[in-house]
Amino acid sequence: MALGFFSRLKAGLTRSTTKLTTGITDTFTKRKLDDFALEELEELLIAADLGPTVAAKVIRAFRRARFGQDVSPPEIRAALADEIAKILAPVAQPLTIDETKQPFVILMVGVNGTGKTTTIGKLAQIYADAGQKPMLVAGDTFRAAAVEQLQIWGNRAHAPVVIGAQDADPAGLAFDAMTRAEREGAKILLIDTAGRLHNKAALMEELRKIIRVIKKRDPTAPHAILLTLDATTGQNALTQVKTFKDMVDLTGLIVTKLDGSARAGVVVALAESTGLPIHAVGVGEQAADLRPFDATEFARALTGADPV
User: Fold this and answer.
1) Which residue intervals define the domain SRP54-type proteins GTP-binding in the entry (predicted)?
2) What is the DSSP letter of 162?
3) Residues annotated within a binding site
4) How many CA atoms are closer than 13 Å to the CA of 248, on its beta-carbon side?
5) Residue 137 contacts residue 221 (beta carbons within 8 Å)
6) 2.60.40.10, 3.30.450.40, 1.10.287.110, 3.40.50.300: which CATH number matches 104-301?
7) With contact defined as beta carbons under 8 Å apart, do 278 and 264 qualify?
Protein backbone atom coordinates (compact mmCIF):
# COMPACT_ATOMS: atom_id res chain seq x y z
CA MET A 1 0.00 0.00 0.00
CA ALA A 2 1.09 3.54 -0.59
CA LEU A 3 2.32 5.68 2.28
CA GLY A 4 -0.69 7.92 1.66
CA PHE A 5 -3.04 5.13 2.65
CA PHE A 6 -0.88 4.23 5.67
CA SER A 7 -1.27 7.83 6.80
CA ARG A 8 -5.07 7.59 6.40
CA LEU A 9 -5.09 4.24 8.16
CA LYS A 10 -3.04 5.62 11.04
CA ALA A 11 -5.29 8.68 11.26
CA GLY A 12 -8.36 6.47 11.15
CA LEU A 13 -7.06 4.29 13.97
CA THR A 14 -6.23 7.28 16.17
CA ARG A 15 -8.82 6.45 18.83
CA SER A 16 -7.74 2.81 19.01
CA THR A 17 -4.04 3.71 18.92
CA THR A 18 -4.36 6.35 21.64
CA LYS A 19 -6.17 3.91 23.90
CA LEU A 20 -3.32 1.42 23.58
CA THR A 21 -0.25 3.67 23.40
CA THR A 22 -1.23 5.86 26.35
CA GLY A 23 -1.31 2.76 28.53
CA ILE A 24 2.04 1.57 27.14
CA THR A 25 3.67 4.93 27.86
CA ASP A 26 2.26 5.00 31.39
CA THR A 27 3.42 1.45 32.05
CA PHE A 28 6.85 1.22 30.44
CA THR A 29 8.65 4.50 31.01
CA LYS A 30 12.09 3.45 32.33
CA ARG A 31 10.97 0.05 33.53
CA LYS A 32 12.04 -3.58 33.36
CA LEU A 33 9.76 -6.07 31.65
CA ASP A 34 8.96 -8.06 34.77
CA ASP A 35 5.90 -10.08 35.80
CA PHE A 36 4.02 -7.00 36.96
CA ALA A 37 4.70 -5.12 33.72
CA LEU A 38 3.62 -8.11 31.64
CA GLU A 39 0.42 -8.40 33.62
CA GLU A 40 -0.36 -4.74 33.00
CA LEU A 41 0.41 -5.12 29.30
CA GLU A 42 -1.91 -8.12 29.07
CA GLU A 43 -4.71 -6.10 30.64
CA LEU A 44 -4.06 -3.27 28.15
CA LEU A 45 -4.31 -5.64 25.20
CA ILE A 46 -7.58 -7.13 26.42
CA ALA A 47 -9.02 -3.67 27.06
CA ALA A 48 -8.01 -2.71 23.49
CA ASP A 49 -10.28 -5.50 22.14
CA LEU A 50 -7.49 -7.82 21.03
CA GLY A 51 -9.08 -10.44 23.28
CA PRO A 52 -7.62 -12.72 25.97
CA THR A 53 -6.28 -15.35 23.57
CA VAL A 54 -4.25 -12.85 21.55
CA ALA A 55 -3.11 -11.09 24.72
CA ALA A 56 -1.85 -14.34 26.22
CA LYS A 57 0.00 -15.24 23.01
CA VAL A 58 1.74 -11.85 22.86
CA ILE A 59 2.71 -12.00 26.52
CA ARG A 60 4.25 -15.46 26.07
CA ALA A 61 6.34 -14.13 23.19
CA PHE A 62 7.47 -11.12 25.23
CA ARG A 63 8.33 -13.33 28.18
CA ARG A 64 10.53 -15.56 26.01
CA ALA A 65 12.35 -12.76 24.22
CA ARG A 66 12.47 -9.76 26.53
CA PHE A 67 11.80 -10.74 30.12
CA GLY A 68 13.91 -8.78 32.61
CA GLN A 69 15.15 -6.27 30.05
CA ASP A 70 14.84 -2.51 30.35
CA VAL A 71 12.32 -1.41 27.74
CA SER A 72 11.06 1.91 26.48
CA PRO A 73 7.59 2.69 25.09
CA PRO A 74 8.88 2.88 21.45
CA GLU A 75 10.55 -0.52 21.84
CA ILE A 76 7.35 -2.01 23.25
CA ARG A 77 5.26 -0.52 20.45
CA ALA A 78 7.61 -1.87 17.77
CA ALA A 79 7.81 -5.32 19.36
CA LEU A 80 4.06 -5.41 19.85
CA ALA A 81 3.54 -4.48 16.20
CA ASP A 82 5.81 -7.36 15.15
CA GLU A 83 3.87 -9.88 17.26
CA ILE A 84 0.49 -8.62 16.03
CA ALA A 85 1.70 -8.72 12.40
CA LYS A 86 2.63 -12.39 12.86
CA ILE A 87 -0.94 -13.14 13.95
CA LEU A 88 -2.45 -11.12 11.10
CA ALA A 89 -0.17 -12.27 8.28
CA PRO A 90 -1.90 -15.62 7.56
CA VAL A 91 -5.30 -13.94 7.05
CA ALA A 92 -4.14 -10.88 5.11
CA GLN A 93 -5.20 -12.18 1.72
CA PRO A 94 -6.47 -10.12 -1.21
CA LEU A 95 -9.71 -11.20 -2.84
CA THR A 96 -8.64 -12.88 -6.07
CA ILE A 97 -11.06 -12.74 -8.98
CA ASP A 98 -11.02 -15.95 -11.03
CA GLU A 99 -11.40 -14.62 -14.57
CA THR A 100 -12.46 -18.05 -15.84
CA LYS A 101 -15.70 -17.52 -13.92
CA GLN A 102 -17.89 -15.01 -15.73
CA PRO A 103 -19.54 -13.60 -13.93
CA PHE A 104 -17.50 -14.05 -10.76
CA VAL A 105 -20.28 -14.00 -8.17
CA ILE A 106 -19.69 -12.31 -4.81
CA LEU A 107 -22.45 -12.71 -2.23
CA MET A 108 -22.24 -10.03 0.45
CA VAL A 109 -23.73 -10.76 3.87
CA GLY A 110 -23.80 -8.90 7.16
CA VAL A 111 -25.96 -7.24 9.77
CA ASN A 112 -27.80 -4.10 8.72
CA GLY A 113 -25.73 -1.05 9.60
CA THR A 114 -22.30 -2.63 9.16
CA GLY A 115 -21.64 -0.79 5.90
CA LYS A 116 -22.41 -3.78 3.68
CA THR A 117 -24.21 -1.88 0.93
CA THR A 118 -21.63 0.92 0.96
CA THR A 119 -18.86 -1.66 0.71
CA ILE A 120 -20.52 -3.20 -2.35
CA GLY A 121 -20.59 0.26 -3.91
CA LYS A 122 -16.92 0.84 -3.17
CA LEU A 123 -15.96 -2.55 -4.60
CA ALA A 124 -17.99 -1.76 -7.70
CA GLN A 125 -16.08 1.50 -8.16
CA ILE A 126 -12.73 -0.24 -7.64
CA TYR A 127 -13.57 -3.01 -10.11
CA ALA A 128 -15.00 -0.57 -12.65
CA ASP A 129 -11.84 1.54 -12.47
CA ALA A 130 -9.87 -1.65 -13.16
CA GLY A 131 -11.99 -2.37 -16.24
CA GLN A 132 -13.63 -5.45 -14.73
CA LYS A 133 -17.24 -4.53 -15.62
CA PRO A 134 -19.20 -5.11 -12.37
CA MET A 135 -22.95 -5.51 -12.04
CA LEU A 136 -24.81 -4.92 -8.75
CA VAL A 137 -27.87 -6.69 -7.37
CA ALA A 138 -30.12 -4.91 -4.86
CA GLY A 139 -30.98 -8.11 -3.01
CA ASP A 140 -32.18 -6.42 0.18
CA THR A 141 -35.58 -5.93 -1.42
CA PHE A 142 -37.32 -5.15 1.88
CA ARG A 143 -35.24 -2.02 2.52
CA ALA A 144 -35.88 0.78 0.05
CA ALA A 145 -32.99 2.83 1.44
CA ALA A 146 -30.53 0.04 0.62
CA VAL A 147 -31.83 -0.13 -2.96
CA GLU A 148 -31.52 3.63 -3.39
CA GLN A 149 -28.03 3.64 -1.92
CA LEU A 150 -26.91 0.91 -4.31
CA GLN A 151 -28.34 2.85 -7.26
CA ILE A 152 -26.27 5.89 -6.28
CA TRP A 153 -23.08 3.82 -6.13
CA GLY A 154 -23.98 2.09 -9.40
CA ASN A 155 -24.34 5.45 -11.11
CA ARG A 156 -20.96 6.58 -9.78
CA ALA A 157 -19.29 3.42 -11.07
CA HIS A 158 -21.30 3.38 -14.32
CA ALA A 159 -22.34 -0.14 -13.32
CA PRO A 160 -25.82 -1.56 -13.93
CA VAL A 161 -27.94 -2.28 -10.85
CA VAL A 162 -30.49 -5.10 -10.96
CA ILE A 163 -33.57 -4.05 -8.99
CA GLY A 164 -36.78 -5.91 -8.21
CA ALA A 165 -40.12 -4.81 -6.90
CA GLN A 166 -40.48 -3.86 -3.23
CA ASP A 167 -40.45 -7.06 -1.14
CA ALA A 168 -39.65 -9.19 -4.20
CA ASP A 169 -38.09 -12.62 -3.70
CA PRO A 170 -34.31 -12.00 -3.38
CA ALA A 171 -33.51 -15.48 -4.74
CA GLY A 172 -35.54 -14.88 -7.87
CA LEU A 173 -33.85 -11.51 -8.32
CA ALA A 174 -30.43 -13.15 -7.98
CA PHE A 175 -31.36 -15.71 -10.65
CA ASP A 176 -32.51 -12.97 -13.03
CA ALA A 177 -29.29 -11.05 -12.32
CA MET A 178 -27.16 -14.10 -13.15
CA THR A 179 -28.99 -14.45 -16.46
CA ARG A 180 -28.54 -10.76 -17.26
CA ALA A 181 -24.88 -10.75 -16.23
CA GLU A 182 -24.16 -13.66 -18.55
CA ARG A 183 -26.06 -12.00 -21.40
CA GLU A 184 -24.36 -8.60 -20.99
CA GLY A 185 -20.88 -9.93 -20.30
CA ALA A 186 -20.50 -8.63 -16.75
CA LYS A 187 -17.29 -9.93 -15.21
CA ILE A 188 -18.23 -9.50 -11.54
CA LEU A 189 -21.68 -9.80 -9.95
CA LEU A 190 -22.00 -8.23 -6.48
CA ILE A 191 -25.15 -9.32 -4.65
CA ASP A 192 -26.47 -7.37 -1.66
CA THR A 193 -28.56 -9.26 0.90
CA ALA A 194 -30.74 -8.56 3.90
CA GLY A 195 -29.22 -8.42 7.37
CA ARG A 196 -32.16 -8.72 9.75
CA LEU A 197 -30.71 -10.77 12.57
CA HIS A 198 -33.79 -10.35 14.77
CA ASN A 199 -35.25 -13.27 12.79
CA LYS A 200 -32.26 -15.53 12.26
CA ALA A 201 -34.23 -18.53 11.03
CA ALA A 202 -35.90 -16.53 8.25
CA LEU A 203 -32.61 -14.86 7.25
CA MET A 204 -30.81 -18.20 7.19
CA GLU A 205 -33.44 -19.70 4.88
CA GLU A 206 -33.36 -16.61 2.64
CA LEU A 207 -29.57 -16.72 2.23
CA ARG A 208 -29.55 -20.47 1.62
CA LYS A 209 -32.30 -20.11 -0.98
CA ILE A 210 -30.32 -17.43 -2.81
CA ILE A 211 -27.33 -19.77 -2.93
CA ARG A 212 -29.43 -22.72 -4.16
CA VAL A 213 -30.93 -20.63 -6.94
CA ILE A 214 -27.58 -19.16 -7.99
CA LYS A 215 -26.20 -22.68 -8.32
CA LYS A 216 -28.90 -23.50 -10.85
CA ARG A 217 -27.20 -21.04 -13.22
CA ASP A 218 -23.63 -21.87 -12.16
CA PRO A 219 -22.96 -24.87 -9.88
CA THR A 220 -19.64 -23.30 -8.78
CA ALA A 221 -21.25 -20.02 -7.62
CA PRO A 222 -21.21 -18.02 -5.46
CA HIS A 223 -17.45 -17.85 -5.83
CA ALA A 224 -17.02 -15.72 -2.69
CA ILE A 225 -19.26 -15.14 0.32
CA LEU A 226 -18.01 -12.11 2.22
CA LEU A 227 -19.12 -10.93 5.65
CA THR A 228 -18.96 -7.21 6.33
CA LEU A 229 -18.18 -6.30 9.94
CA ASP A 230 -18.35 -2.93 11.70
CA ALA A 231 -15.22 -2.37 13.80
CA THR A 232 -17.13 -0.16 16.24
CA THR A 233 -18.98 -3.24 17.54
CA GLY A 234 -15.79 -4.61 19.10
CA GLN A 235 -16.00 -8.16 20.37
CA ASN A 236 -19.56 -8.48 19.09
CA ALA A 237 -18.00 -8.91 15.65
CA LEU A 238 -16.83 -12.36 16.76
CA THR A 239 -20.42 -13.32 17.55
CA GLN A 240 -21.54 -12.09 14.13
CA VAL A 241 -18.94 -14.27 12.43
CA LYS A 242 -20.20 -17.33 14.29
CA THR A 243 -23.82 -16.50 13.49
CA PHE A 244 -23.21 -16.14 9.76
CA LYS A 245 -20.89 -19.16 9.62
CA ASP A 246 -23.83 -21.18 10.90
CA MET A 247 -25.88 -19.88 7.96
CA VAL A 248 -23.47 -19.98 5.01
CA ASP A 249 -19.94 -21.00 4.07
CA LEU A 250 -18.12 -17.72 4.58
CA THR A 251 -14.97 -17.30 2.49
CA GLY A 252 -13.70 -13.98 3.82
CA LEU A 253 -14.21 -10.79 5.84
CA ILE A 254 -14.21 -7.06 5.18
CA VAL A 255 -13.90 -4.79 8.23
CA THR A 256 -15.42 -1.32 7.95
CA LYS A 257 -15.59 1.93 9.95
CA LEU A 258 -12.11 1.66 11.41
CA ASP A 259 -11.95 5.46 11.23
CA GLY A 260 -14.75 5.80 13.78
CA SER A 261 -13.71 3.09 16.20
CA ALA A 262 -11.70 2.89 19.39
CA ARG A 263 -12.00 -0.91 19.10
CA ALA A 264 -9.94 -1.72 16.02
CA GLY A 265 -8.03 -4.30 18.05
CA VAL A 266 -10.91 -6.66 17.31
CA VAL A 267 -9.35 -7.20 13.87
CA VAL A 268 -6.55 -9.09 15.61
CA ALA A 269 -9.05 -11.12 17.62
CA LEU A 270 -10.90 -11.96 14.38
CA ALA A 271 -7.69 -13.18 12.78
CA GLU A 272 -6.81 -15.35 15.75
CA SER A 273 -10.22 -16.83 16.44
CA THR A 274 -11.72 -17.31 12.96
CA GLY A 275 -8.78 -17.84 10.61
CA LEU A 276 -10.93 -16.37 7.83
CA PRO A 277 -9.15 -14.23 5.25
CA ILE A 278 -9.48 -10.50 5.88
CA HIS A 279 -9.58 -9.13 2.35
CA ALA A 280 -9.98 -5.40 2.97
CA VAL A 281 -10.49 -2.69 5.56
CA GLY A 282 -12.35 0.60 5.35
CA VAL A 283 -11.18 3.87 6.88
CA GLY A 284 -13.48 6.41 5.26
CA GLU A 285 -16.40 7.17 2.98
CA GLN A 286 -14.65 7.18 -0.41
CA ALA A 287 -14.02 4.13 -2.59
CA ALA A 288 -10.27 4.75 -2.22
CA ASP A 289 -10.68 4.34 1.55
CA LEU A 290 -11.44 0.63 1.09
CA ARG A 291 -8.09 -1.05 0.58
CA PRO A 292 -6.53 -4.52 0.67
CA PHE A 293 -5.63 -5.56 4.20
CA ASP A 294 -1.91 -5.33 4.96
CA ALA A 295 -0.86 -7.08 8.18
CA THR A 296 2.33 -5.13 8.87
CA GLU A 297 0.91 -1.69 8.16
CA PHE A 298 -2.22 -2.37 10.19
CA ALA A 299 -0.18 -3.66 13.15
CA ARG A 300 2.08 -0.60 13.10
CA ALA A 301 -0.80 1.83 12.73
CA LEU A 302 -2.66 0.17 15.61
CA THR A 303 0.31 0.23 17.99
CA GLY A 304 1.65 3.64 16.97
CA ALA A 305 4.93 2.14 15.75
CA ASP A 306 6.77 3.80 12.88
CA PRO A 307 6.15 2.36 9.38
CA VAL A 308 8.70 -0.12 8.10
Assistant:
1) 103-304
2) E
3) 110-117, 192-196, 256-259
4) 28
5) no
6) 3.40.50.300
7) no
Which residues have C-beta within 8 Å of that of residue 156, sequence separation ≥ 6?
Answer: 121, 125, 287
Architecture of domain 4-91 in this structure = Up-down Bundle (1.20)
pLDDT digits (tens, 9 = 90+) for 225-239: 999 999 999 899 999
For 224, the 3-state DSSP assignment is strand
Residue spans of the chain under pLDDT 50: 1-3
Report the alpha-carbon distance of residue 254 to residue 266 in Å, rounded. 13
| Residue in 101, 46, 33 with CA at minimum distance from that of residue 72 | 33
Torsion of CA 197, 198, 199, 204, to 10 degrees: 10
pLDDT > 70 in the chain, percent: 97
Annotated binding-site residue numbers for GTP: 110-117, 192-196, 256-259
